[in-house]
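Batch job 17 of 40 flagged for manual review because the log was empty.
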Amino acid sequence: MNYKLPGHVEEKMASYERLFRDMPSGGLFFYNKVQTLVALTSCLEHIIDHPDQDPWAPLDLCLSHQLSQLEAARLLSHEVALSDDNVDQYGEHDRTKPLFEEAWTTYSDDTYDHSVSLVEERLIDSGFDEDWFEGKTCFDGGCGTGRLSLAMARLGAEKVVAADFGGKSLDFFKRQLKRHGLNNVQVVEMDVTDLSLYAAGSFDFVASNGVLHHTPRCLDGLDEHYRITRPDGVLWLYLYGAGGFYWDIYDRMKKLVSDIEIAEIVRVMKDFRLREGFIYTFLDNVFAARTYYLESEIIERLSKAAPLEFVHQGGPAIFDNPGKYIQERFGKDIMGPQGEIRVVIHKKGAIGQKLAV
């Protein structure tokens, strides 16, 4: 579902893409190319935070500056190596695991703790505080470095099962659990699109927080998460919403860097002294494989398995609540007609009902 940019913005975006591909990728030129990606990311992050403001003027201005930057760099080259469209040398899903293995595991305790506090705010603003979590058994599918799991554990959950495909992320998470002195989290290494290890209705609170849309079996994994949610339990779900230009531009940026080693871009960004959270945002938004859905599609699919009620999540950022976000003047242009899928699903019905395919 590609978004049609205004003509003048599309013209500059297409010119930026052509010039980016045509420039050499070594030495000074590589630094210049990464610098333009950083600037475009910064512009998009400003836009998503201000859905009440015209996005086209800052995007147009940013693209003009990046075109000038690349043109100036190209003048330094005696010979510009022209190239066809980049060929993805790495399968998208082949890159996703090593990407997330490195994305947070190299960062400081302060950066990690700040990210946990943001997740806690989202939970509390959505009605899930210490009183709610008391005595609850929770599942965090695709926990990564465990920010959501740690937040639930700190809020008093009786038990949290934190599941992921393993490696550095889980090792990092185990160190964080020890540092925080928490013993109510069970870390499990597994594929979170196949939860056959757990019976239907096993958990009071099941979370898939920005995970399944990075997997090749998103809807299968969604079915599994809903299956293990008990009747009258809660599924906390975040998936990328379809439509809007925010993700569309990031997908175009992804094509530009498909033949570049992630580690090389990270090295340059660290040379730029960028804050750790910004680097994570860039890596996640530009390199990770992903799929998009409409909220209505997801709700319809799950409601065929068991009756449900849902509300939008809350949180400190304006984009945390998609229902409010798309009411802003440019919200639907930025994030699509229904916004991101950030929902709290209250499951009804009987344990063991088979999901419709």
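Reviewer: the log was empty due to a logging misconfiguration, but the result itself is present. Confidence is low (pLDDT under 50) at residues 78-90, 352-357. Unflagging and moving on to job 18.
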